[in-house]
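# nightly structure sweep
# worker-07 picked up a monomer target from the shared queue
# config: single-sequence mode, recycle default, output format = structure tokens
# input follows
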Amino acid sequence: MTPCTCAIPEEHASWRVLFDSLSADIERVRTFAPNYRPERGLKTSISLSLTANISCLIFYRVSHLLYVRRWKRVAQTISCLNFLIHKVNMPPDSCIGPGCFLPHPAGVTFHGVAGHDLTVFSCALVLSDCSSGMRAPILGNNVTLGGHAVLMGPIVLGDRIKVGLAAIVERDCPSNMIIVSNAVGRMMSPRTG
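# output follows
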């Protein structure tokens, strides 16, 4: 495994940061999920923690904490359990800020660095590129990745970027952009004949 790609990995070595990040994750689910009332009680937090989109983040955040504390084999084991249970591939050396939201976590692969309020839809791939020495993508804050989107290689995405359905991104993008796929655009265009 590659070394931790966090900017300051020591900050992620405390249980307090883990609980704060999970609280922010639960808050994001509360704001997006209409089935959960806005009340903030222990019962609601526990019920949200048992949903797939939060429990896979619990597995990831615990494995990341253990990885930063140099318990790499245990961290890798927890990451493998996360893959077996939730079908989510989030290696412990990846770094995701607080407030992550995975509406449909199955099929998500994330190997990179992301700021706060990341949203990743089903089957999105964030991958390091073997030809670039395994350097992973770096995502800013408030980034949204649509279903089947692919980010690959040592790219940097700015803040407030939305990557559309099935879009492939292989180069840097500045902040405040919407990236769509040409293939989806062709599928949605009206027939001419």
